[in-house]
Amino acid sequence: MVRCKPGQGSTQTLTISNNTNAEVRFNLETQDVVVSDGKRSFSPAGLIANGIAATSVVSPTSVVVKAGEDATVQVTFTLPPETTQRAVVTFFRGILAPQGDGVVGLGASLGTLITFNLSTDFKLESGPLEASLQTPEANAILSQELHNTGTEPVVPKGIIVILNASGKRVAKAPFKTQRLLPGERVVFAATNPAQLAPGRYRTLSSFEFERKVFTSAGEFTIP
Fold this sequence. Notes:
The protein has 223 residues and is an all-beta fold.
């Protein structure tokens, strides 16, 4: 997560490790990460207005990584003054070496997400709580959708507290931490650590991000 201002530049150092027993060649490519209808997608550099990927300069533009060794590149970005983009992915695109007759080549591409925070407009909205069916083999999974309605990426760290009908705390569980880009909708889930007796329960969810705390209440029933 890079913190900067529009018009500023930022250089990131990326390292890839080859844990196979063969030499691998990679070309470097950067794409913008676009959020549409709450979901992420990739857009090749230059296809969207004021994109960040089009400003990227990679050195070197390709690397050969021997078996058991590492390779490092530097990627420099210059944030367009009017950009609304907040994320790119830089890919190490694997190149297949020529293979002999009857030999199947295997290639791989790996990418790293780089996000940019340009302001302090951090906002979240929450959907209703949902609970999966508790069975003798599986505890209930509690989930709720978070929507990033601000202009900056956030990484909420959350926890949910379960209260019984009398208000006593009977369980607590952490939500899996995930990153939300502006406009993105992501379901956060927490597995209840123990079996609950049949009855009605209330919940209090709390998410901490960028020195803010976002809370919401919910309820569910164990048949």
